[in-house]
Amino acid sequence: MSTHSTNVPALNMKEGTGSRPGPWKSSMTSVPGSIRPVYGAQHPPMNFKLPSSPKKEDKTKYTKRDTFADFENKTSDAWDDTDDELLSMSNMQMSLKDVQSTARAVLDNHSKQTLTQSSKDNALMKLDGSKANTSSNSHHAGPGLGVRLNNSYKPPKTTHIRFAQNTDVEREAAKIDKFKKLLNEPNLNLDQLRSLSWSGIPRSIRPTAWKILSGYLPASLDRREETLERKRHEYFGFIEQYYDTRHQDTHSETFKQILKDIPRMTSLAHLFQQKVVQEIFERILYIWAIRHPASGYVQGINDLVTPFFVVFLFEYIENDIEVENCDLLELPKSILNIIEADSFWCTSKLLDGIQDNYTFAQPGIQMKVNALHELVKRIDNPLNTHLEKHCVEYLQFSFRWMNNLLMREIPLRCTIRLWDTYLSEINGFADFHLYVCAAFVDYFSKDIQQERDFQGILMLLQNLPTHHWKDKDVEELLAEAFKLKYMFADAPKHLCRKS
Questions:
Q1: The pTM is what?
Q2: Per-residue pLDDT tens for 399-424?
Q3: Which residue has the higher pLDDT, 299 or 9?
Q4: Which residues contact 47 (CB under 8 A, 6 or more apart)?
Q5: 115: part of which helix (H) or strand (E)?
Q6: For the chain, how many helices (H) and strands (E)?
Q7: Which of 68, 296, 316, 390 would suit a FRET pair with 471, their CA atoms being 20 to 30 Å apart?
């Protein structure tokens, strides 16, 4: 069954004006609402109150270098640049050169400490004649996705588009047949689709399944084509109506922030450096912000468009965009328009369920960070004790996990597999994500406890070694999260500390 519709006229914008002829021109010229100021994604808003500081008698246990402020003065998130709001929030007067040099110093120092400890362990092994006791899942080979592009980055050689063929892997054939049979029913059973999708959706089925699970497409087979055509035209109607306002004084700061964030999305820099892709994301994010004045644009929302864009792109090409630099200008404009409109609507549906994560002061994230703290206390108290001993606040590492739904912690291929399950769960992005985060930090528990100072712990938590992860790793994580959900979801008082 094909859900493609190539009747969407090509978007032919003039640079700097955003105007074009089209059938959607509306007599309406006003912009709904107003957009609130943009604040950062890596740390909470400026008015966010950190948990109470240690009691006076406890402060002597910690040295000055154990503070988060000191850590921030020595290193910086690799995603940030010199004019990012995140730096201004910390009132730091630092140049890009300072940030890079101090970050390298911290990394070098941390590596030397690791090598020194390793040498001591090897010496003990020789003396004792026995193997050193190491963590079964210890990963000291290098940082994960937190360490991103550097000045020496060079994109891979451009690869020609390979249009998708209907060639499904044999081992998935039976599952694909089940999906196709279910999707072709006149009135699809959503519970059956969720059950079948929870364990992963085949690539060829994923675009249609995600649209239905997101609530973008109806369960009724007869209404899907009509819905796609109508919603795609509606989206480009918003472009006609509102996109010219992006340079107005009221909205220029929002659009400026969007322009800054787009090139820094995920590790697929070669894809997001393409002008055609950046313009698509600019339109999607700006129109979403205009239509949601209660939150406006917040850093982190830009990342959440990426999985939808890539999945809907895979409906037309078979290139592995994580390793290949394919030129999307080879795709017809009508197909790019379809991918853009569908990505907008599915992202909007996702954000409707977690909008309190992005309203002023981001209360949804505050609650999730506190809930994660309570959950880890129950499932891994030694880890929690270790974090508290070294003054590591959950806010300092898990705010980004909640804000970006772990997208900056794991590869994109793993995010897509993770979202198969999130879309299959009722309120998966809001509720089940908490248990995934708990399983995620618990997975690296032994590695975290091997770190002996504040900086070492934070460096590990911000750069977890997940770059090698595959679907099987995500499925192990989901299995643990599933167990936690059924241990605690129906008994929330279990998360409360006993008096």
A1: 0.72
A2: 999 999 999 999 999 999 999 999 99
A3: 299
A4: 361
A5: helix 96-128
A6: 20, 2
A7: 316
